[in-house]
Amino acid sequence: MDEVAEYNVERWRALAEGGALYTRPLLDLDAEKARARLDPVGWLGELEGRRVLCLAGGGGRESACFSLLGAQVTVFDLSPEQLARDRLAAAHYGKEVETVRGDMRDLSALRGAAFDLVWHAYSINFVPDARAVFGEVARVVRPGGLYRFMCANPFALGASPRDWDGRGYALSHTYAEGEVVTNVDERWVYEREPREPAPPSREYRHGLGTLLDGLAGQGFRLLRATEDVSTYPDTSAEPGTWLHFVSVVRPWLAFLSTYDPAA
Ligand SMILES: C[S@@+](CC[C@H](N)C(=O)[O-])C[C@H]1O[C@@H](n2cnc3c(N)ncnc32)[C@H](O)[C@@H]1O
Q1: Could you tell me if 117 and 259 are in contact, meaning their C-beta atoms sit under 8 angstroms apart?
Q2: One CATH from 3.40.190.80, 3.60.15.10, 3.40.50.10710, 3.40.50.150 for 3-259
C-alpha cells in the first residue's frame, strides 16, 4: 500500500468511527427507496440479475440498494470498516454481497469478472491518476456494460462554505491538474464525536479534459452526464452554510458511459 492509500485507510477508519454520513449503512430501505437513491434520473434500467460492482463504494449503502433490486453485488473498497458495513447491511436484508478489499488503482483481484455495471461512488478524487482507474475499470466491465462514476466538479474542488466572503465563495486554489486540496469535514457530516477527528480529506484535481478524454481513451463512450448529484440547493439558506453553498457552486458531477472497446 502506498502513502495515498494509507492516508485514506486511516481517514475512513476515523470517519467510520464517528458515524460519518457516507459510512452509515442504510437499514430502512425497500425496493422503491433503493431505486430512488441509486437512479433518480432513470439511467440504469433493469437491475434484476445484473452483476454490479460497487467500486470504492463501501459503507453498506449502495450495495444494500442494488441487492434489494435483485442485482448480484460485489463491493470493492480500501477500508475494512466500510466493507464490514456492507456485510452488516447484507445480513440485515438476508442478501449475499461479496466484499473485496483493495485499491481501485489495481483491480487485478476482480479480473475475469465482466460486470454489467460498475457503480463508482465518489472517490476518484482520492487518487492522483484518474486515467489509471479508468484503465482498470475497462478490464473488469463487460463490453457493452455500463460505468457510472461521480467526481468533484473540477472547477469547484477546494471551495467550501467557509470561503464565504460576504459577496460569494472565493476560489483561492490554482486550477492545476493533480493539485492536492485538503478540506476539514463539515461538523454535520458526523453522527457522533469521534475519539479523534478524521484527518482532512485529501483530494486531487482531475480536470474535465482528463476525465472525458480519460474515459474515451479507455474505450468508454459517454451516454449521460449530470451536475445534479445529491445536492439540495436552497438560495434562501444562510450564506456560508452548506445549503447556500450548493446553490451557488455545483460541487459534483456524474457520468454514465458504456464500454465499447471497438469504438
Ligand atoms: C465517499 S465514500 C463512497 C462510498 C459511500 N458508500 C457513499 O455513500 O458514497 C468513499 C469510499 O472510497 C474508499 N476509498 C478511498 N480511496 C480508495 C482507493 N484508493 N481504493 C478503493 N477505495 C477507496 C473509502 O474507503 C470510502 O469507502
Answers
A1: no
A2: 3.40.50.150
Cβ contacts of residue 68 below 8 Å, gap of 6+? Answer: 29, 30, 31, 34, 93, 95
Residues with CB under 6 A from ligand 1: 5, 8, 12, 22, 56-59, 61-62, 77-79, 82, 103-104, 121-123, 126-127
- 159-192 pLDDT, tens digit each: 989 899 999 999 888 899 999 999 888 777 777 7
Measured in angstroms, how far is the CA atom of residue 18 from the centroid of ligand 1?
Answer: 16
Query: What grid cell was written down for 117?
Result: 455495471
Q: What is the pTM of this model?
A: 0.95
Mutation to probe ligand 1, out of 126, 191, 202 (largest number of atoms < 8 A from CB): 126
